Amino acid sequence: MDYNYKYDKDNMKSGIGDIVNLILEDYKNGRDIDNMDIYNQPDRDAVKDIVIKLIRIIYPGYYRDKVYKSYSDANRISIVIEDVIYNMNKQIAIAFRHSDSYRDASDETLECGARKITHEFFEKIPKIREYLDTDVQACYSGDPAAYSKEEIILSYPGLFATSINRIAHELYLLKVPLIPRMMTEYAHSKTGIDIHPGATIGKYFMIDHGTGIVIGETSIIGEHVKMYQGVTIGGLSTRGGQALKGVKRHPTIENDVTIYAGASILGGDTIIGEGSVIGANAFITASVPANSRISMKNS
Questions:
Q1: Which of 210, 208, 183 is closest to 197 using CA atoms?
Q2: Closest CA to 184 of 214, 207, 223
Q3: Whole-angstrom Cα distance, residue 148 to residue 140?
Q4: pLDDT tens for residues 178-193?
Q5: How is residue 120 annotated by DSSP?
Q6: Is the separation of the CB atoms in 278 and 294 below 8 Å?
Q7: What is the pTM of this model?
Q8: Terminal-residue alpha carbon distance, the chain
Q9: Is 41 helix (H, G, I), strand (E, B) or coil?
Q10: Beta carbons within 8 Å of 161's beta carbon, 6+ residues apart
Q11: Residue 283 belongs to what H/E stretch?
């Protein structure tokens, strides 16, 4: 390839310096994306590591630890628990900077608040495990392709996403900023299943296949609910933007409901009655009574 000029090293260095200065100047425009204080944001890799270790704590016999070695199960688990407590304290203290309640608080106040929340969260671990045990049972009972519960725990993306959501939901209830959503978005990136940490989900929840499922923040899902890939439990409209914050925008799904692939159920006033079956690709924006059968028929 021929060039009409020689671009020597001095020109290149000068050019790089000009580009650096151009970008550094651009950071001075006062936009939200100009923030350069990386130490005042929760660390995504640290949050991911916390999630992975919490999964090990919840399923102690299913996920091997490549760092900590011990002949004693109690010692092995206690090391992981202490590690998570230490790092969760750090990340929550940082996240509190983004809470109106802590915005101008001292470092000592942030650290004290983080320790309190972390302690309260860990007291919820038995409840999280209780719910997830029922989810494993629901997946096994509801899927003839499942040959063992071990297979479900080790390989089903629906259970993985549900596990992380149940962790994140407890932190959401404790009003921890940022971190619950970072956790569920990690699950989203791994599985294609997008469950907001604010969603309330009852026991015996089963996601089959799962890719493309979306469950919004104010959704309420009862017990023994089963849903397939591509289901949306969403808002009817988001045109109100931030004015809709705190408003129930997403449906209520009562107990013993099955929702087949591609169905969309929208709106905060929409209630799917107990025992109903929603067929594939149905589009629902109004409540249906208990024991309904909704289907899309070919014309």
A1: 183
A2: 214
A3: 7
A4: 999 999 999 999 999 9
A5: H
A6: yes
A7: 0.89
A8: 61
A9: coil
A10: 184, 187, 188, 190, 191, 193, 195, 207, 210, 213
A11: strand 283-284
